[in-house]
Each structure stands twice: as C-alpha cells, then as structure tokens.
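ARCHIVE CARD
CATEGORY: sequence design from structure
SOURCE FIELD: tokenized fold
FIELD CONTENT:
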C-alpha cells in the first residue's frame, strides 16, 4: 500500500504569498476642472481661454529668460577660457623672469 505524504501530514502546502502593497502614486489624483462653460462670454481675464493665454505668455517669458541665460553662460565660458590663457601666459613670463634673474 502506498501512503501519500499529503495524507500523513509530512508535507504541508507552502504558505500563501504576502499581499503586494499597491504602488504609491507619483502624482496627486487629478482635480475636477473648474473651467467656465465654452458658451459664456469671456470678460477681462475670464473664461476658458484666459488660463491658456496666461500659460502661453508665461512660457514665452520663460523661454526668453532661458535664451538670455544661455547667452550669458556662453559669454562667461568664453571669458573663462581667455582668463585661463592669460594665467598660463603669466606663469610662463614668471618662469622666464626667474631664468633671467638666475643668469645674472
């Protein structure tokens, strides 16, 4: 007679796996829109187009500022390279001067 290891209790099934926690959302849940109806007339700074216009204006301003910063960064990098070249020249002149003084 063959006895099953399950019948003897010598083998038990493995425990159930632990539940996997839900992932933490990276962004908060979306909020309901509070835009006005498209049929309403837009007053000064009012209506659904006003927010979009402000975003475009802000984006344009940020782009202009970014361009200015990039230009200034380029100028600074060019001036830094010139300063490094001048420092190298000064170091060479100092060595030359020391060599001349050593000859005398």
């Amino acid at each position: 007679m063959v006895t099953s290891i399950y019948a003897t209790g010598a083998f038990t099934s493995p425990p159930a796996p632990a539940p996997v926690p839900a992932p933490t959302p990276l962004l908060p849940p979306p909020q309901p829109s509070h835009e006005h109806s498209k049929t309403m007339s837009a007053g000064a700074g009012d209506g659904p187009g006003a927010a979009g216009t402000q975003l475009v204006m802000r984006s344009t301003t940020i782009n202009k500022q970014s361009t200015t910063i990039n230009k200034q960064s380029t100028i600074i990098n060019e001036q830094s390279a010139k300063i490094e070249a001048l420092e190298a020249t000064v170091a060479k002149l100092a060595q030359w001067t020391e060599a001349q003084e050593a000859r005398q």
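CARD ANNOTATION: The two ends are 115 Å apart (CA to CA). Residues 52-104 form one domain.
SHELF: design records, drawer C
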